[in-house]
Amino acid sequence: MKRLYAFFICLLAILAMQAQIVKTTPTFPTENDEVTIVFDATKGTAGLKGFTGDVYAHTGVTIGNTVWQYAPTWGDNSAKYKLTSLGNDKWQLKITPNIREYYGVKDGETVTQLAFVFRSADKSKEGKDTGNKDIFVDVHTAGLTVRFDQPAEKENLITNTALTIQASASVASTLKLYVGATEIATEANATTISQSYTFSAAGSYTLKAEATANGKTVSATQEVTVLNGTSTSEKMPQGVRPGINYISDTEATLVLQAPKKGYVYVVGDFNDWTPKSDYQLKQDGEYFWITLSGLTKGEEYAFQYLVDGSIYIADPYTDKVLDPWNDHEIESTTYPNLKPYPTGKAEGIVSVLQTGQTAYNWKVKNFERPASEQLVIYEMLIRDFTEEHTFNAAKEKLEYLKNLGVNAVELMPVNEFEGNSSWGYNPSFYFAVDKYYGTKNDLRAFVDECHSQGMAVIIDLVLNHSFGQSPFYLLYKDADGQPSADNPWYNQESNIKNKELSWGYDFNHDSEYTRALVDSVAGFWMSEYKIDGFRYDFTKGFSNTYYGEGSWADGPDKDRIANLKRMSAAVQERQPGAYVIFEHLAATSEEKQLGEAGILLWRKMNYSYCQTAMGWTTENDFSGLYAGTSMPAGSLVGYMESHDEERTGFKAWKWGNTGVIASTTGTNTGISPATGSNINLSTRTKRLATNAAFFLTVPGPKMIWQFGELGYDFSINNNTDGSEYDDKAFRTDPKPIRWDYFEDADRKKLYETYAALLDLRHSYPELFASNTTFSWKVGTANWDNGRTLSATSIDGKSLVVVGNFTLADKNFSVTFQETGTWYELLKDNEPLSVSSTTQTIAVPAHEFRLFTNFKPTLTGIETTAPDAEKPLIYYNRGMDTLVLPAGEAKRVEVYSVNGMLVMTQEKCTSVGLSALPVGYYMARAYMEDGKVQVCKIMK
Known about the structure:
By secondary structure, the protein is an alpha+beta fold. Helices cover 16% and strands 32% of the residues. It contains 14 helices and 51 strands. The strands form 12 sheets. It has an 8-stranded parallel β-barrel. Strands 10, 11, 12, 13, 14 and 15 form a 6-stranded mixed sheet that branches.
């Protein structure tokens, strides 16, 4: 009990500090007063303590119960919001001529509070109230007013704790204090009154302060809840785990894992947000639990946990949250019937439970994933993929991706992150779908449709760090805002001191608590949403090995390797064959060990492909894309662009060589294609197509960053409409969404080139397999004499690519694997007679040519072969049968999406497919007259 008493004495000290974070003149401001605000940067979060740069106020008002009205755009550095330094970490803001005019409050509206967050000019530092709360200052009515100074807000304390109760009046008055109906203090002709009071019994109490002057009496009230400071020990029901456990249509058991905490209550819609004794959780070791009964089937209940009397958190494992700061921006078309936030009853994020939910009815129950070495991944940011920024709108575009040749979609983070408009690398709740993109069933429907169209779904997980909204952080943090030493999940500081590699609060991946969390996150998404795999962000951070300020943490790091192998094995244990992809970018010796464990690793090639797109002759070697024997076959997910990199299309547009951006010497002074001319689009898209030819024909999994196939040419550093450029301010801002690019002839031709290359890749997977004989000459030394690539499968199929990245038409000496007839893919299989293995090939500037030693029949030709008058084969979905209207086939082969032969039938005019599970297939029919045709099958 002494420990708890000391805790609350400390808490009172903290509350006193809170009250002093801002001071106002006058002490009781009204909406018609000029007000001087003095901000003490050493108080609250102390985020601006010692700061000497310019400080601005992000400020608004409360009208009725609606906070933050009449606030400027975040980051507005107008003079009226700039504070004046008073020295000693004190800053002054003048609200003049009065509150109403300063904020522009409309007639008929009453201001009840001022709201503040103080920040640096570049928005990198913030000064807020203790607990990372916004700062609020009451605005009073004119005349006699009384208020509570302590407790300044609704208070929780434990039994037998003395509380100092203090109130003040705007003019000298007769002041009285009450606990319930009992008067505990009185002062005559005073402006302040104070009294200590000890609450001996648990329960809810109403405090009242009363002021009387000149025959007028006013009062103010404040609520105090007195809690039991100890927990009742009782074993949890068998089979429950941390989070919300649905027992029946009317019951749910809540479990919170909180080592070293003393007691927990649950507050929510079911008990009017009051920590009543019936809602105190029982304790089972480090777990606290309660079974709620009498719930209404299908009704949503918002709730929080109250831990040790002062910490309010949402359930860390909830699959839905309500956000007081951002939910109001979510449109009803995005999230219909979104439950309102319980304004006035709760603060901060709250969790939601709902019994009796209707299970989603999956169309595709047994999706067969593409083989990892054949993955063509499309990295997608839902926010910037469609104007609607929703799962549903993205789902409507999936045919576009299928036609492109994508067989996997990688979604940038879709679990709840801080704010609405974000890349998602600031996670807050790992088990909840971010509502800005839609409902959880909208995400399920998106995954289901991807599967039905033959595409796997991979999601991005950010488990290196999280930020201030994470309940795992809020449960254990020091007064200075850092995770406390006893936090089970976080390190107090990042082990990596390079500020460019350190974000938020650093997870401790040596902790068993963190490991259990990481494993449960993966298991949840695979189980609940049929996710096929994960791309883990910044896996360099998954150890506690120290790296100094100048280090890029490249390793090798044996502890990190062990942690990551363990994590990957846990995913495979839950879902054999699931993809595990790391953004690691570390030492090759370390990546090799991870690749040998079946892990896929990002291979960044952005700089080299940007150089060739621009037409520059240096630092443009592609060879790092294909690691040969230095890495396990098929372990590198190569990419020319990602969300983290500059666009090849933008660099070609902005900094292209003479002949790329213009026909004569010149420079491009434009900020983006929205503000500058559309310089040499035809040339630029040809170069991007040639890049693709030396990318998509290389064995191993590949990734395309959204709209790269259309030559997207707005910068990563452009703002939302492309009118501005800033490499810090706009990097993660929304970018222009340009589906009109698909209607442009040059850009559509680029898309079609991508599609043809991917069609070849999928139609003849053996040519791009890990056992293919592959070689290429793609170094800087190969610039002038042409870059070449050759591959030969184990069954003798061969291809040759020759590219001209120079600025002039050229004839190149090209080596073919054999003599005979070759076919040029992008010229309708035009034949080329190769009489000697060394041939001279003419290649126009910026372009490429691709030849095969066989006449490809691509899966994209679904109904007719180029030389056929009628279809040889098609799929009848209603009959679930392949039909051959042209007559009997010599042989029909059916392949799964990962290239495995799953069915063969000889001498047939139809092939029934009912024995095959739902999925995406490719059939190849060999006719008696030698004709061959392929068709796609979508069951």
